[in-house]
């Protein structure tokens, strides 16, 4: 990687960190943040239901050990970002009304 590519990547990371701070996501551990991103990418529709296998197979989650993945799912449920789908068996998840929405800010 040349210096200009590293500089562009550094600036992108700085912008991402700023957006995460603006959305109040800085307190989330990295695995929970990556899980949040994976769910958002997989379920563009807020009513879409995802299985834990679909989520765990996402490139952001693929290398996360199963136990760590399951703990992160539980934590995001406890924090109100996701919920078990009430109309399905276990291991089916959906976004909640607390899902962060950058584009719906009032400013």
Keywords:
single chain, 107 residues, mainly alpha, 3-stranded antiparallel β-sheet, globular, disordered C terminus
Secondary structure elements and their pairing?
Blueprint lengths: L2 H20 L7 H13 L7 E2 H5 L9 H13 L3 E3 L7 E4 L12
Helix pairs in contact: 2-4
What is this structure, in a nutshell?
The chain is mainly α and 107 residues long.
Could you explain how this protein is built, in words?
This protein has 107 residues and is mainly alpha-helical. The chain contains four helices and three strands. A three-stranded antiparallel β-sheet has the order 1-3-2. The longest helix has 20 residues.
Structural class designation: mainly alpha
Uncertain segments = 102-107
- The level of helicity is 40-55%
Number of strands: 3
Classify the beta-strand content into a percent band: 5-15%
Distance between the termini: 38 Å
Order of helices and strands: HHEHHEE
Radius of gyration: 15 Å
Largest sheet, in brief, is: 3 strands, antiparallel
């Amino acid at each position: 990687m040349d210096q200009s590519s590293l500089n562009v990547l550094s600036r992108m990371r700085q912008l991402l960190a700023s957006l995460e701070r603006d959305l109040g996501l800085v307190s989330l551990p990295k695995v929970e943040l990556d899980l949040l991103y994976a769910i958002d990418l997989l379920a563009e529709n807020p009513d879409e239901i995802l299985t834990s296998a679909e989520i765990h197979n996402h490139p952001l989650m693929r290398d996360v050990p199963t136990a760590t993945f399951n703990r992160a799912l539980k934590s995001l449920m406890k924090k109100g970002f996701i919920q078990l789908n009430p109309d399905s068996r276990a291991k089916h998840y959906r976004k909640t009304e607390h899902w962060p929405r950058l584009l719906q800010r009032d400013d």
